[in-house]
Amino acid sequence: MNEDMIKRLIDMLSPIAVKFAGKLVAAAVVLFVGFKISKFAVKLLKSNKVFSKLDANVCSFLASFLSIAIKAIVLITVAGFIGIPMTSFITILGSMAVAVGLSLQGSLSNIAGGIIVLIFKPFVIGDFISTDGVDGTVTDIGIFYTKLTTSDNKRIVIPNSIVSNNVLVNTTHQTTRRVDIDITVAYDTDVRKTKEILLNIANSHQKVLREPDVPMARLSAHGDNALVIAFRVWCNTDDYWDVRFDLLEAVKEEFDKNNISIPYPQLDVHLDK
User: Fold this and answer.
1) CATH assignment, 122-170
2) Does domain 3-103 have CATH number 3.40.1060.10?
């Protein structure tokens, strides 16, 4: 290759090199500015008053999602500056997203469930909940899983997709709770006297409340083997089990003192010869 050929080659490639260099510079500027905008957007989001009221896990997730989304847009723009066909690039990204989405379908549904729980707060840490056949005190709410501790100190890990899609009972959400006890007595029992005894037991208990309603004892059913008396009292949610156990013990003691029997199922058998 002689000197003239080299010169002609340089003359031919110089415009291409200048043009490509310009694209590289533009791409670098877009990349730099785009990443700066990503940081600024995340910082602006975190300083928002509404955002600051959300759970810490929600804040972290949303900030990460916003940062990744902006950076993805910047990278696509940079690819366009360099000359990569946008249609092909977006098609590849779409195919990758579909493949990842299918492989992580369960995890993504858990993330969605976690976001729903963290934003709408059907329960918070410390609440006692029942869902999908299990119950316990909430000890941790994560993006993927919610962790419970049962009354006998076992840990239960529930996927957030189950927590957000199933019926859930939050036992401790309200500050007060009603104790419902059905008392059975023999058919020959004096119902009025029995009701007085039950109300005296309730009224003498320090943790039984008079609001939102006073204690109640009413005949509720004629059972197959006994009369059923509905015994209802209100108490603070934290006192529920203490009140329930105390009332059951007191009922047994007072019934024994007053010769009120608590019947058990009976079956009469007739033998024909």
Assistant:
1) 2.30.30.60
2) no
CB 216 within 8 A of CB 231: yes
The residues that bridge with 231 in the sheet, in sequence order, are 181, 217
Predicted pLDDT of residue 104: 47
pLDDT at 27: 72
Angle between helices 56-82 and 3-47 (to 10 degrees): 160
Q: Rounded distance, CA 23 to CA 20, Å?
A: 5
For residue 248, pLDDT beyond 70: yes
Residue 229 has pLDDT above 70, yes or no: yes
In the chain, the DSSP E strands lie at 128-131, 134-141, 145-149, 155-159, 168-170, 176-185, 208-209, 216-222, 227-236
Predicted TM-score (pTM) of this structure: 0.60
Look up the CATH architecture of domain 176-257: 2-Layer Sandwich (3.30)
Domain regions of the chain by residue span? 3-103, 122-170, 176-257
